[in-house]
Amino acid sequence: MKQLIEYIVSNIVNHPESVSVTEEVAEDNSITKYLIEVNPEDVGRVIGEQGKVIKAIRQIVRIAAIQKGTRAILDLKEDGKVYQESAESEDDVPEEKTEEKVEEKVEEKVEDKE
Fold it and tell me: What do you get for the CA distance between the two ends of the chain, in Å?
């Protein structure tokens, strides 16, 4: 998995020699955390517009982990700061909350038309 992440990220950035991936395994071996470090000039390329690139990389890592029967978390480190995946991603939001948001938007549109 580590090699997969290094391969993907090194082909995106302008300074592939500075790509570093650190792997941390949880005590119970259920979750593996990967931390990507790149040249400061390349952080924007890894994050992408509105975070689309890092989300895509995280999705690939998640799929590869599922195929192995494990869980994986991917974070990006820049100047000592770690950019973690937000807990409020669409995959993590309970179905009830999503339905409530849709209902609220429908009610707002109906009120606007009246």
Answer: 55
Residue with tokens 């592939």: 16
Token duo for residue 17: 């020699």
Output the DSSP codes for 52-89.
HHHHHHHHHHHHHHHHHT-EEEEEEEETTEEEPPPTTS
DSSP state of 25: E
Q: Which fold has domain 2-113?
A: GMP Synthetase; Chain A, domain 3 (3.30.300)
pLDDT tens for each residue of 78-100: 776 676 765 444 444 444 445 56
pTM of the model as a whole: 0.69
CA 33 to centroid of chain Cα atoms: 12
Measured CA to CA, the distance from residue 14 to residue 31 in angstroms comes to: 30
